Q: What sequence folds into this?
């Protein structure tokens, strides 16, 4: 999996872009907020916390790694 880092980036880029845009729109509209007591305090312009950005990166990576692990164990059936 890590040998194919370009493939991982191509997979992650649209997912991260869509969800970051979605969050930024919801924050700007006042529909979505983050409790400062529950985040690291690092906030990007637009109000997006670092924690949220990492969530959008880490969760898809875990999904891809889980899929690859199952595929490796079960083989290409």
A:
């Amino acid at each position: 999996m890590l040998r194919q880092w370009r493939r991982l980036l191509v997979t992650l880029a649209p997912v991260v872009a869509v969800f970051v845009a979605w969050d930024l729109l919801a924050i700007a509209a006042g529909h979505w907020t983050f409790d400062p007591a529950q985040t690291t305090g690092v906030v990007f312009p637009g109000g997006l916390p670092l924690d949220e950005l990492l969530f959008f990166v880490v969760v898809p990576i875990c999904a891809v790694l889980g899929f690859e692990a199952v595929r490796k164990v079960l083989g290409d059936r």
